[in-house]
Design goal:
353 residues, alpha/beta, QueA-like, Thrombin, subunit H, 9-stranded mixed β-sheet, 6-stranded antiparallel barrel, 8 helices, 21% helix, globular
Length: 353
């Protein structure tokens, strides 16, 4: 249960989705019942029929920032940079044209302190320092930084989604974003939410389901592989979260009334469970979530979840295994492979209840 090898499975590369489904709610939906391990195959728009009027559906309203930049060092060498903490106030000074952020940099040689990288339209970045694989970078722009970044930056798609950096990414800017994305700061989409449309959300509300939002800015940790043999030794990266008083009230009332809390995505699950703690009562507020959920964890808030299919040996697969049971989850994944479901960020969905 605690060995990293326990969370491996075989996945044909052809099942890794490279593009989103033609229609958001046209994705497939695997329904897994935790009680008996039964699996049924549906389409995502049928989620409306699987929810109950007493349910609270909790979504993560973070918004992905186009924070991947391609430029060149003063020496002429190519450099790719990814802003990690755009959603934090730390980098925002009084000057709208200047920013300081923690970043990843990919280049032929490590960028030392003082290295300058030039991007389109006059944007310049200077490396201040480097620690534990992450750079501190000062940006200087000829106009307000935010507008320029949104114009020249690219969406930070996961590395298993292949794109030519020279091609426009307008389609990804729309589809690698939930329809309810509001709070900017994520470096990856909460992908379980990509399947929802405004029409589906309206049908859900008409059924009597309450929709509430939390914010968790998906961070660098979502891409960091587990490198320890015993998963209990893994340390997950912190991510900034926020829960409003209204959401805390709605969720707490649902629990008191015997309704289900249905979390959309592992990010919503972690946010709710972190805020609930051992007492099970959601506390409003904001901070940094570092909750690592793996088998043996006792859930105190979430009763059902909607999620995508996750990478082998990943912390996300461990989380859903904690919720449904490792063997049950791996059997469901095997069924999805057999039925040729599409996997990962742009792939199909699963309801676990």
């Amino acid at each position: 249960m605690y060995s990293l090898d326990d969370y491996d499975y075989d996945l044909p590369e052809a099942l890794i989705a490279q593009t989103p489904a033609t229609d958001r709610d046209g994705s497939r939906l695997l329904h897994l019942s935790r009680g008996n391990g039964t699996v049924s195959h549906r389409h995502f728009h049928e989620i409306v029929t699987l929810l109950r009027p007493s349910d609270v559906l909790v979504v993560n309203n973070t918004r992905v920032v186009p924070g991947r930049l391609h430029g060149r060092k003063a020496t002429g060498g190519k450099a790719e940079l990814l802003i990690l903490d755009y959603g934090q106030a730390d980098g925002r000074g009084r000057d709208d044209c200047k920013r300081v952020y923690r970043c990843l940099i990919k280049a032929s040689k490590q960028a030392g302190a003082g290295t300058r990288i030039h991007f389109d339209e006059g944007l310049v970045a200077e490396v201040r320092d480097f620690s534990e694989g992450i750079y501190t970078v000062a940006f200087s722009a000829p106009e307000p930084f935010d507008g320029l970044l949104h114009r020249i930056g690219r969406m930070p798609l996961p590395p298993y989604i292949k794109r030519d950096e020279t091609q426009p990414d307008e389609a990804d800017r729309m589809r690698y974003q939930t329809v309810y994305a509001r709070e900017e700061g994520a470096i990856a989409a909460p992908t379980a939410g990509l399947h929802f449309t405004d029409a589906v959300l309206s049908q859900i509300s008409e059924k009597g389901v309450t929709v509430a939002a939390v914010t968790l800015h998906v961070g660098y940790g979502t891409f960091v592989p587990v490198r320890v043999d015993d998963i209990r030794d893994h340390r997950i990266h912190e991510e900034w979260y926020s829960i409003s008083q209204e959401t805390a009230r709605i969720v707490s009332q649902a629990k008191a009334d015997g309704g289900r809390v249905v979390a959309v995505g592992t990010t919503s699950v972690r946010t709710l469970e972190f805020a609930a703690g051992t007492g099970g009562k959601i506390q409003p507020g904001s901070g940094r979530c570092d909750l690592f959920i793996y088998p043996g964890y006792t859930f105190t808030c979430v009763d059902a979840m909607i999620t995508n299919f996750h990478l082998p040996r990943s912390t996300l697969l461990m989380l859903v295994s904690a919720f449904a049971g490792r063997e049950t989850m791996l059997q469901a994944y095997a069924a999805a492979v057999k039925e040729k479901y599409r996997f990962f960020s742009y792939g199909d969905a699963m309801l676990i209840d």
